[in-house]
Amino acid sequence: MVATVRRVELTPSERRTAARINAGLALMPRLKTDNWRLEAGQWASARLGVAAQTVTAAWLRRRGIRVETLRVPSSDGDVCLRILHPSDPPRGVILDMHGGGWVVGSAGLNDHLNAGLVAATGLAVVSVDYRLLSERRGVLLDHAIADCLTAGRWLAANAEARFGTDNLFLIGESAGAHLAALTALSLRDEDRFAAFRGCVFIYGVFDLSGTPSVRAANRDTLLLNGPTMAADMARLLSDRDEAGRRRPDVSPLYAGMHDLPPALFVSGDLDPLRDDSALMAEAWSTAAPAELVEVPLAPHGFVHFGGPLARKAMADVATWLEHRLTNRQASGAHRTKIDPVSPTCA
Average pLDDT of 227-255? Predict the structure, then answer.
């Protein structure tokens, strides 16, 4: 198999709107490792737009969405999950991992996007509040990876008992797509991935040694600091050389591809991580159907900026999920045991 590639078509009006959004982004500071000390809210407010900051529980309730938080125990501290429930019994569950360069963001960052998916598909969404990397607090990439895997194990074991369904999906955006891919591969290796019907990776990072488009990024790059991107990723794993950063435990592009569900990849033409999506889609296609959606004029992070690019990309994601749901054969497997959780997150 080879990956299917499809380009999003834009009207002249949509292109003008996208250009105006990009012109505004060009005036904003770029994210680099010097920003590791920023609070998540400050970074998101500056770079991810108003929509991500204005979603409230009341806004979600008006759309028939109930919010639940809980803690899943792990060997080195609880993992907090934020759950968006549809008004009707869910048709399935999405395990969601937010972006933010591994250093900022939260499980609530994608509320505005996830609310749209809940409304469009009837799926519940479980977002992972994984630990953010911090030099001051000694939080490393391994901690974020472990938190996401803990969440994946919990959902795989408890989805049917807690949600009444074994239709599971995995979605990640940017750094979250990196964590989602590693989670998928680890769950597969542990024989816990059978209930997952598909994965969605939105402008993900799949090679921490830097793909060609990352290494070629320049000062005109939007949102991310192009000239330092490869060095910034190297700083995530300062104890490894370039070959070590290509190992499959941190760079899923180099993992063995087998026994995987279909996957959707979304990338933007102006994103320096576009090669990551293209290469990972090709690698994934050796194991399962993979589709790559290319979005013209789209920089990194574009689904948060509103406008036609974000709307069309998220509509594609919802359509793909719906297709997977409607074409799925009913499963006869049932689980009854629910792993322990604490009811709320502080």
Answer: 95
Cβ(114)–Cβ(127) below 8 Å: yes
CA 103, 225, 178 angle in degrees (round to 5)? 45
Phi-psi region of 91 (alpha: psi -120 to 50; beta: other; left: phi over 0): alpha
pLDDT at 35: 47
Nearest to 126 by CA among 91, 164, 171, 181: 171
Task: Kindly list the strands in the beta sheet with 263-268, ordered across the sheet, starting from the edge strand earlier in the chain.
Answer: 4-7, 290-295, 263-268, 196-202, 168-173, 93-97, 124-129, 79-85, 66-72
Residue-wise burial string across 311-336, b where 16 or more C-beta atoms lie within 10 A, e elsewhere? ebbbebbbebbeebbeeeeeeeeeee
* Residue-wise burial string across 259-286, b where 16 or more C-beta atoms lie within 10 A, e elsewhere: ebbbbbbbbbebbbbbbbbbbbbbbbbe
pTM value > 0.85: yes
Interval 56-83 mean pLDDT: 90
Q: Give the pLDDT score at 342.
A: 57
Lowest mean pLDDT among 137-146, 169-178, 303-312, 330-339: 330-339
Alpha carbon dihedral 196, 146, 238, 201, in 10-degree steps, equals 20
DSSP labels, 60-97: HHHTT-EEEEEEE--TTS-EEEEEEE-SSPPS-EEEEE
Please give the mean pLDDT across all residues of the chain.
Answer: 89
Structure tokens given for 207: 């090679």
Note whether 62 and 56 are within 8 A (CB).
Answer: no
Angle at 126 between CA 123 and CA 127, to 5 degrees: 130
CB 156 within 8 A of CB 116: no
